[in-house]
Amino acid sequence: MYTIGQVLFVVLSKKNQVYPMQVVEVITKKMLNGEEVSYVLQAGADKATKITLDQVEGEVFDTHEKARKTLTQRATAQVNKLIDIAISKAGEWYGAPAAAPPLQVKEVPRMIQDLPDLMSKQEQQQQQPQHPLQLTPQRHESTMVTMPDGSVVRVKMPEF
User: Fold this and answer.
1) What is the enclosing helix (H) or strand (E) of 58?
2) How confident is the model at residue 112 (pLDDT cuts 50, 70, 90)?
């Protein structure tokens, strides 16, 4: 099943950690009723720290990809469960309508330049922030300014 030198990825039961362990010995015991294979693992950088696979308290994966996929699926399921509970409570408490099903993302853009331009040029120009003060020239010596609260004040502007 495992080979000498292979690195296994263990999701430890007692800690929130993925721990790499290397197979350093394979012991095959032949008996009348069949064979028994046991594996000795090096746990950590200390070569003296060894443990048998049977003693490992956790879930063992033969590749980091399998460990990542399993942990990601579990985390996603837990998040979805939390969101579903919140949606249910929102409907119960506030009469909020049921939410739409989650969007399926096919590919996440890697850089900001990869994002699609969703607005037309005209829409982008309409969304330009408007300056809160509106200047209305009245005379060459002073200017009327409309303040954000709606009041109008006269301001003398220096000539440049």
Assistant:
1) strand 58-61
2) very low
pTM of the model: 0.55
Same domain, 67 and 23: no
Domain residues for the domain of 78 are: 63-96
Domain count, the chain: 2
Q: Are 158 and 142 in contact (CB under 8 A)?
A: no
Our CA dihedral for 72, 74, 75, 81, rounded to 10 degrees, sits at 140
Query: What mean pLDDT is predicted for residues 10-33?
Result: 94
Could you tell me the CA-to-CA distances from 106 to 66, 103, 109, 118 in Å, in that order?
Answer: 21, 9, 10, 17
> Which position has the token pair 């399921």?
77
Question: Is 39 in the same domain as 79?
Answer: no
Residue 131: exposure state from Cβ atoms within 10 A (0-12, 13-18, ≥19): exposed
Same domain? For 11 and 58 the reply is yes
Q: How far apart are CA 37 and CA 22, in angstroms?
A: 16
Q: In what order do the strands lie in the sheet with 18-31?
A: 50-52, 34-43, 18-31, 7-12, 58-61
Alpha-helical (H) ranges within the chain are 64-94, 121-126
